[in-house]
Structure to design on (336 residues):
């Protein structure tokens, strides 16, 4: 039996606009005892992701919203500390949707084994986890990149965007990243091998796209929505494909934004915009994971992690993520 205290971050209240520290609270309880068929897991790395802001809303969504007092949603990389199931042994590394907490007892069938031989275990919730698979399936299935295409991706230095651009390069695309600082732009070009990058905070995105790709944009992987989406829509090539992956520029919006304003460009260019969720491709996730792992081993796919030490820092880092503070996949290191 494991004695001690489990800490969990709960949603104390719903944010109105940008979340603040007051929207989060730590809840303490005894470390739970696993029942027959359960495993007791201890969090090593906690993943912080933009979709969690959506769970804090009460409006319509593809997932059930959190209620005040609920543990913040999320996936962790964890170690099995006790097992009452033949499926796992003590010491196994797993990933589990236990949310923002240090310990949990969960049914073994809800937990997935992590193979530490593939890559460092933190990647199980990053490049080899949900964000990497989002990039893989969203790009290949929705954007359908072809050699010679101009591919544009926003939030380009992030967990999803960085992988999108590199898979675009592997497929022979001319890749343009859009990001929020010169440092991030320089990283995607010089480290990840993108062909060009646009700093949307200091440059005119529409003018830069027209200059970099006069024949237009064939594929756009949209992580942000808003005015950046407008700018790309103004520069579409004929029969372009837009993957609506995320709308992070709108996540803290208090009112539903109007638009899209220039949807006529889809008509003019006979283009397609399609929303998707990573879970739409769940049956093929293992194929995608194996492919991503192989590219990492071959040195063709790089990734960057932004690892912050300390469970207590989660709300502040999450608020920062929605402002662009993170540089790469944001993780909280909870224990060794
Ligand atoms: N459809 C799906 O199944 C699925 C799955 C996973 C993720 N997503 C979506 O994919 C997107 C990227 O997720 P991620 O995990 O890779 O996050 P991330 O890129 O690692 O981090 C978020 C980044 O978004 C950018 N950003 C923040 N506010 C912005 C704004 N107002 N305008 C433009 N950019 C802004 C910031 O980068 P800059 O400094 O460059 O602005 C920030 O670093 C999110 O929209 C997320 O919701 C969708």
């Amino acid at each position: 039996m494991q004695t001690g205290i489990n800490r969990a971050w709960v949603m104390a209240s719903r944010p109105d606009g940008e979340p603040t520290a007051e929207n989060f609270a730590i809840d303490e309880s005894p470390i739970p005892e696993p029942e027959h068929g359960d495993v007791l897991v201890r969090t090593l790395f906690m993943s912080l992701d933009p979709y969690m802001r959506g769970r804090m809303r009460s409006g319509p969504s593809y997932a059930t919203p959190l209620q005040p007092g609920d543990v913040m949603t999320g996936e962790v990389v964890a170690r099995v500390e006790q097992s009452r199931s033949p499926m796992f042994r003590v010491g196994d590394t797993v990933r589990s949707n236990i949310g923002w907490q240090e310990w949990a007892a969960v049914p073994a069938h809800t937990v997935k084994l992590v193979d530490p031989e593939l890559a460092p275990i933190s990647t199980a919730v990053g490049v080899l986890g949900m964000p990497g698979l989002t990039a893989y399936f969203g790009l290949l299935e929705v954007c359908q990149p072809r050699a010679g295409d101009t591919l544009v991706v926003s939030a380009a230095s992030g967990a999803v965007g960085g992988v999108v651009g590199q898979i675009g390069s592997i497929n022979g695309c001319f890749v343009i990243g859009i990001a929020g600082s010169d440092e991030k732009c320089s990283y995607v070009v010089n480290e990840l091998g993108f062909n060009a990058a646009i700093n949307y905070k200091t440059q005119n995105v529409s003018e830069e796209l027209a200059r970099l790709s006069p024949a237009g944009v064939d594929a756009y992987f949209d992580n942000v929505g808003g005015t950046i989406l407008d700018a790309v829509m103004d520069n579409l090539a004929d029969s372009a494909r837009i993957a609506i992956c995320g709308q992070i520029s709108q996540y803290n919006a208090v009112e539903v934004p109007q638009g899209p304003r220039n949807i006529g460009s889809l008509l003019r260019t006979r283009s397609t915009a399609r929303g998707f969720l990573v879970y739409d491709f769940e049956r093929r996730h293992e194929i995608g994971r194996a492919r991503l792992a192989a590219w990492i081993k071959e040195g063709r796919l790089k990734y960057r992690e932004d690892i912050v030490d300390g469970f207590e820092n989660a709300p502040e880092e999450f608020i920062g993520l929605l402002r662009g503070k993170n540089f790469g996949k944001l993780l909280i290191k909870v224990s060794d």
User: Anything to note?
Assistant: Residues 130-143 form the longest helix (14 residues). Residues 129 and 219 are 24 Å apart (CA to CA).
